[in-house]
Design a protein that fits this description.
single chain, 283 residues, mainly alpha, 11 helices, 2% strand
Amino acid sequence: MNYWLSQVLNGVSFGMLLFFLAAGLTLTLGVMRVTNLTHGSFYLVGAYLALDVVHATGSFVAASVVATAAMAVFGLVVFGLLRLVRGDLRETLLTFGLVFIVADLSLLWWGGNPMAVPKPALLSRPVDLGGFRYPSYRLFIIAFGALVSGVLEFLQRRTLIGAMVRAVVDDVEMAGGIGLNARVIGGATFVTGAALAGLSGALGGAMIGVFPGADIQVLLLALVVVIIGGMGSLTGSLVGALAVGLLDTFGRVLLPELGASLIFLLMLATLLIRPSGLFGRRA
């Protein structure tokens, strides 16, 4: 029993990590209507920066703040570059090229060895859950993910800023007709998404590590989460992330020969049943 409970917690903690990635990506897709392939690069560089800051200062909190802020600035730069081109294909190709540039520069600067961001001392020891011991850091990821999810949901559902974002997601032309600047809102959501990806890099670097190719790996998972949950929906991102996290964890335990195929089968089933995603707006 304890074994299966630990696997559930593993899946939920991994799902919460994916939520940090998918939350920003789903809003960017919903507002800007462009597939931002650099989202995985934000994770990769954020994780590496967090690693450097921890080694320099010994503070995991400082590392997380630096990774979040730096990727927000990086996201602003990428957003500026996207404004220089016109057309979905050109925007996608631009972000696709940036993925390779960032990956090669990261490999040149940080090398190709897998590394891990050191966990804070307070969260480095397991805790007793009444019969078995479980890593405290993963419990922190679950709790922090739930907190961030609640804050983002409140901002989207209960504030004027959230109402403007929802308006652009639902109908960009109508939003423009009532005076909303879709470009400014798109830039704000893009930068917020990049910041969340940088934060996920710092948090994920301590849980699953950082290595060349991690950007593509997490990008694929984030895209699957967004497709399952529905474009523009934070609730969908949370549900999709938890579903992918649990399916990935139990799939590796029960059906290791299928590997990641189960996740993509879930995505395919979702597209067949509800093409707009579980919580996406029907066309």
